[in-house]
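Priority: medium. Attachment 1 of 2:
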């Protein structure tokens, strides 16, 4: 199987895994707003290996690994790779999960989450807690890699309570993962304070000495396409991953920042609501969709008013109707040129 982490041209631009965010719908929204060649890799939300290995649990977690045909077509057309991210603390379940994911034939790689800081996972020796259990971390990486021909990668942090970048990343490098994404904060830092990119620079030097075959992706506070390129160059990483930056600008993956009109915002929001309804209408709560509205409704006069209106909309039909009202109002105000419609 192709090790795309090595074969794709560098630097790689990557959309971060984000729980309750980067499902097939949001990924397709981002794909539709990205320019060819400006986005290379995307991740699923993290998926429990215990869940995947349990008959009833599998049903519950499988929506995290859903990939719409329309998303798959866009991924193929743009040569953009999709990585399934998994988490847990039992190597056997990683082994079985990797097999299951490989059999699905939807994914280009498997990533092991060793970074999530939340208590409910950390108390089970999972995710960032594996930084404190390095032998178990190794066992998990080996068990996963042994049972798939997909490239296996790790996403982690620079320490648990303290910064131990070289000790921890050195340890992970011994297992020769195909890539390591480093979120430049400790678990203790959660998402607070600036990301410590100098630590990523240290990890790159270590990689150069110990295992040049492992790709290093830097993560933390990447704010724009240009910022991703600058950070990649400055710290010598093979790529940069964007997380929350996508909420401030869903058009971030464009080499030349496009000028975004209100018509563009309305169009992308309509696409998002419709695709969410068609994909999840019967299974996911409509209210989850509301947290995305502020992505589109900002940066123009009257945005706060419209955000307030959309927060009151009770279902898909009401929010789509509001979108029509908004479109009409801006059209009347001639904020939008007539030829856009
Ligand atoms: C809402 C949300 C959900 C997240 N879920 C995951 C996840 O499932 N797996 C993971 O490895 N990281 C997850 N993260 C962490 C991001 O992938 C990323 O490492 C972090 O946001 C730092 O990048 P940024 O500064 O660009 O936002 C999540 C972050 C956010 C904000």
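Attachment 2 of 2:
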């Amino acid at each position: 199987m192709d090790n795309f982490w090595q074969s794709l041209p560098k630097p790689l631009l990557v959309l971060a895994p984000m729980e309750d965010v980067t499902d097939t719908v949001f990924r397709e929204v981002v794909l539709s707003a990205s320019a060819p060649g400006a986005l290379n890799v995307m991740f699923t939300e993290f998926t429990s290996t215990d869940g995947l290995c349990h008959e009833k649990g599998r049903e519950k977690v499988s929506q995290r690994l859903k990939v719409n045909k329309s998303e798959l077509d866009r991924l193929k057309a743009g040569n953009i790779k999709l990585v399934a991210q998994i988490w847990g603390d039992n190597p056997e379940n990683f082994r079985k999960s990797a097999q299951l994911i490989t059999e699905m034939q939807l994914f280009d790689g498997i990533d092991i989450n060793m970074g999530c800081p939340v208590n409910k996972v950390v108390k089970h020796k999972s995710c960032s807690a594996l930084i404190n259990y390095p032998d178990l971390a190794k066992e998990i990486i080996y068990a996963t890699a042994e049972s798939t021909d997909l490239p296996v990668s790790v996403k982690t942090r620079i320490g648990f309570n303290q910064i131990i970048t070289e000790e921890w990343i050195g340890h992970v490098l011994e297992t020769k993962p195909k890539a390591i994404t480093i979120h430049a904060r400790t678990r203790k830092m959660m998402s607070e304070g600036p990301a410590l990119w100098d630590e990523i620079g240290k990890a790159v030097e270590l990689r150069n000495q110990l295992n040049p075959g492992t790709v290093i992706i830097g993560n933390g506070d990447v704010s724009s396409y240009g910022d991703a390129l600058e950070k990649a160059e400055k710290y010598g990483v093979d790529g940069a991953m964007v997380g929350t930056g996508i909420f401030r600008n869903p058009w971030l993956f464009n080499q030349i920042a496009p000028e975004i009109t209100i018509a563009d915002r309305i169009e992308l929001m309509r696409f998002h609501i419709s695709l969410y309804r068609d994909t999840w209408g019967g299974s996911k709560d409509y209210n989850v969709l509301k947290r995305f509205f502020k992505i589109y409704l900002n940066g123009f006069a009257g945005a706060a008013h419209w955000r307030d209106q959309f927060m009151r909309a009770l279902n898909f039909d009401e929010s789509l109707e509001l979108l029509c009202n908004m479109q009409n109002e801006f059209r009347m105000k001639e904020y939008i040129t007539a030829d856009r419609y």
